[in-house]
Amino acid sequence: MSKIFLSFFFITGIVFCSCTATQKNYNPAKKYGQQALQKDFILLQHILETKHPSLYWYTPKAEMDAYFSKYYSDIKDSMTEQNFAWHILAPIINKIRCGHTSVSLSKAYSRWVTGKAIPAFPLYMKIWNDTMAVTANLNWKKDSIFKRGTLVTAVNGIPNHLLIKYMLDFLPADGYALNVNYVRLSANFPYFHRNIFGLSKAYRITYLDSTNNEQSTTIPLFIPGVDSLKKDSIIRKENKQIPAEKKMLQYRSLTIDSSGKFATITLNTFSDGHLRKFFRRSFKQLRKQKINNLVLDIRSNGGGRVGLSTLLTKYISRKDFKVADSLYTKSKSLRPYSKYIKGGVLNNIALFFNCKKQADGNYHLGYLERKLYHPKNKNHYGGDVYVITSGPTFSASALFCNAIKGQPGITLVGEETGGGWYGNNGIMIPDITLPHTHIRVRLPIFRLVQYNHVPTKGTGVIPDIFIGTSYDALLHSYDKKMQVIKDIIYKK
Fold it and tell me: Is 247 helix (H, G, I), strand (E, B) or coil?
């Protein structure tokens, strides 16, 4: 790897670690005037139009212009930061169909909300397709109806299929790979429902009873009590005391089944966990113990460093590969908007030294377009590999899946990835901070088209064996995807 290319990633790392000024005495109820909101909106529009590498990838310019016009006109009065972010910015960002372009509230809001227990819609629900099933009930002491597995068909008169469709319009995704957003809604349905619909004193819930007949009842808003606040503080205190090695297990782990027939590597990130050492030790152990089947669980891996996903590919791939067919940015500088973009000056330096303009008018990161990687010789894994994927399999994880898919002895099992199969935007992803509201919007700088890519259809990487959500597994709390893979291995 060239020194220039190394300096590119070194500078990028500094960018992500830079600090910004903080706000004091934050008031979430503060409203920003119409003119201030309009100025933030227009600034964001100009930055996206001039610096985003794929603003019109899935949405034609004429349609995108119409969306900008619509949401600008929706700023009719003063608004709180939260309302402006969720009801103006989030829907317009959704239309870009880029999973790396997303909205976050200000750092001041994040500090204010940390540790606070906030009133919420009381039901956590697993969401898939047009189905909603209860997984937890915040009002469980007062409610005997909504237990784990109860199927909900409507909330406040909105049928579940319309409710889900509406909520998805507020969340970012790569193309039309929506599986990641089903998982997001499932992880914290109360959070998304509160921000999209606001709070109600009570909710009318329509559900299927034990005889599969539709019933309706009203449930109250969940209001946290003193006990829940104490419990939260205890949990936070315990989290700070997690031993280092146990913390590493949150990022990655290797377990060998007692039968000796297979091993499982769970890899939840390509950013943390001392992965170079972990890969080296793990694949050495697999070779020494002659483990012929490997389950690689990356269904919760949201990506991270491309260099680490490439390293894993080298341990597993049966053939030479590249990271990208093309990798480029629209502009060689973030000027004149550098002051609004985190690490703007350092990013400009990195772009200047590492990108070269080509005939298409774009500035290419040619090293990753040209570099051909070879499988490792030492401790390369040649046994059968089963890769478990899901919606959160994103970004660098999707690059890995594309590189190894279709190779002999490698099988993708599970659900469509959230990361785009054709390609995605990223490499450098600084935050835009809007000057009046201080709301942040992630801005990917580069457009990456996958090596040997599929046509532009907006899907994630499709598994070889599809295993979707199992209602029985949800009821009885077992891992359906893992069970299917074990059955395949044991029957060999």
Answer: helix
**How many other C-beta atoms lie within 10 A of the C-beta of residue 91?**
18
Is 208 a domain residue? Answer: yes
Residues 6 or more apart in contact with residue 303 via CB below 8 angstroms? 269, 270, 271, 309, 394, 395, 396, 397, 398, 419, 426
Q: Which domain holds residue 188?
A: 123-227
485 token code pair: 């893979």
How does pLDDT run across 60-81, given as a tens digit for each residue?
A: 999 999 999 999 999 999 999 9
Q: How many structural domains are present in the chain?
A: 1
Pair of tokens at residue 158: 């909105």
Q: What is the C-alpha separation between 312 and 310, in angstroms, rounded?
A: 5
Please say if the pLDDT value at position 481 is more than 70.
Answer: yes
**What is the distance between the alpha carbons of residues 160 and 151, in angstroms, rounded to a whole number?**
10
How far the first Cα of the chain sits from its last, in Å, is: 42
Contacts of 165 (CB under 8 A, 6+ apart): none
* Residue 220, number of CB atoms within 10 A of its CB: 13
Mean model confidence pLDDT for the chain: 91
In which band, very low, low, confident or very high, does the pLDDT at 448 lie, cut at 50, 70 and 90? very high
Six token digits for residue 107: 């750092």
| CA dihedral angle for residue 29, residue 192, residue 180, residue 342, rounded to 10 degrees | 0
CATH for 148? 2.30.42.10
